[in-house]
Amino acid sequence: QVQLVQSWPEVKEPGASVTISCRASGYTFARHNMHWVRQAPGRGFEWMGIINPRGVIPTYAQKFQGRVTLSRDISTNTFYMELSSLRSDDTAVYYCARDSTSWYVDVWGRGTLVTVSS
Amino acid sequence: QSALTQPASVSGSPGQSISIPCTGTSSDVGGYDYVSWYQQRPGEAPKLMIYDVSSRPSGVSDRFSGSKYANTASLTISGLQAEDEAHYYCSSYASGDTWVFGGGTKVTVL
Fold it and tell me: Quick one: CA dihedral A101, A106, A110, A116, positive or negative?
């Protein structure tokens, strides 16, 4: 079955960077774009960006432009999200989420908690 | 890329119908038929309930339905049940190949 397996929780200091991985299995990797979405504690979802597995330049939400980098490794069917210059309000659960091909998500990862604290 | 507007909470008694509005602009909800709805229970990943405004994935109860008029989409839950208690989020494609979420609505079954 389709699975998105995300990396383990991270604890980072303010100013640091974090990279989260999302390994996809159970489907043809190249056929689906991948969203990255985050959810701060007790808050709603924030869309961060989307990456095409075939190598087209990712699209980023305006809020995260310059701080987030999405990438993928087709040899390992893995997507990556790097967020730099971390602040305390970046503390959140970060999800990778497979786009269906029609701008909705049909499969979500389980989420990776990133805690930013000194 | 402003968030879509949802009420913070909606409640209803078992068996009743409730609707959750999701208001955007002509650059997102009003301009495209790419509105989707997600249910999230505490500690869980979201679950897709409605896509393409009014389509329902297999396995989702037909008590859930979606619609759209102008810049506002709506999720309707009919025959409200205790298991429907959760947060619900709308989302929409937006111009520039971006995506935007609503702030979420907590549904309480009285």
Answer: positive
Q: Is the Cβ–Cβ distance between A116 and A88 less than 8 Å?
A: yes
Tokens describing residue A75: 């040899």
CB of B37 less than 8 A from some CB of A: no
Q: Which residues contact B90 (CB under 8 A, 6 or more apart)?
A: B4, B6, B20, B22, B35, B36, B37, B73, B75, B101, B102
CA distance B5 to chain A (A): 12
Cα–Cα–Cα angle for A18, B98, A37, rounded to 5 degrees: 35
The residues, ordered by sequence, that sit 6+ positions from B25 with a Cβ below 8 Å of its Cβ are B2, B31, B71
- Give per-residue pLDDT as tens, B9-52: 999 999 999 999 999 999 999 999 999 999 999 888 899 999 99
Dihedral through CA B36, CA B41, CA B42, CA B46, nearest 10?
-40
CA dihedral A109, B40, B84, A33 (to 10 degrees): -50
CA distance B65 to B76: 5
Q: Does any CB of chain A come closer than 8 Å to the CB of residue B57?
A: yes
Residues B49-94 pLDDT 10s: 999 999 999 999 999 999 999 999 999 999 999 999 999 999 999 9
